[in-house]
Automatic annotation (TrEMBL):
SUPFAM superfamilies: Phosphoglycerate mutase-like
Sections of the chain in a coiled coil: none
Name of the molecule in the record: Phosphoglycerate mutase
Pfam short name (any one): His_Phos_1
InterPro entries: His_Pase_superF_clade-1 (IPR013078), His_PPase_superfam (IPR029033)
């Protein structure tokens, strides 16, 4: 819970900092990306290539939604796997949004950045894709693939007037 409080304080701080980055017509000029890996998956059937999230994974998905409760997302993206969609679902419900499915094989990163400019977006992905997204948003190779047993990374990236800030938090 203390982590939730810290993230909320951080989020509010960012909002107040970047609220100064609005134009005179009150249009938002900051893009914020929240990136998370899917929650713990059910490993009871090793042959299942598309498992659901486990009970612990469902608890984590609810925890993400609680953590994000004061963030008004414009869009929520997920790959078309049970575990990513189920991780995104509680936050999508809270924001009254339909989760948008993205296809990693046909993903146009530049088009995505253009379509999400000046929006607040949650992206749910995988241990090998979320760091790639983060690195592309910040135009640097900083973040490495997430370890298999790590489901707690939260990447927050803000882009405002070509200024980029980014942080990685561990939310257990």
């Amino acid at each position: 819970m203390k982590y939730s409080f810290l993230i909320l304080i951080f989020s509010f701080s960012l909002n107040s900092i970047f609220s100064q980055e609005t134009s005179q017509n009150n249009t938002k000029s900051t893009t914020t990306y929240y990136l998370i890996r899917h929650s713990e998956k059910d490993l009871s059937n090793p042959t299942n290539s598309n498992p659901d999230i486990s009970e612990k994974g469902q608890e984590r998905a609810e925890k993400w939604a609680e953590l994000f409760q004061n963030i008004n997302f414009d869009a929520i993206y997920s790959t078309d796997y049970n575990r990513t969609k189920q991780t995104a679902e509680p936050t999508s419900i809270h924001n009254e949004l339909t989760t948008i499915i993205y296809d990693l094989k046909n993903f146009d990163f530049d088009k995505f950045k253009t379509e999400t400019k000046n929006k607040t977006v949650l992206i749910v992905g995988h241990s090998n894709t979320i760091p790639v997204f983060a690195n592309k948003f910040i135009n640097e190779e900083i973040y490495e693939q997430i370890e298999e047993k790590n489901y707690s990374n939260l990447y927050i990236i803000n882009i405002s007037n070509n200024k980029i800030s980014h942080n990685l938090f561990k939310i257990d």
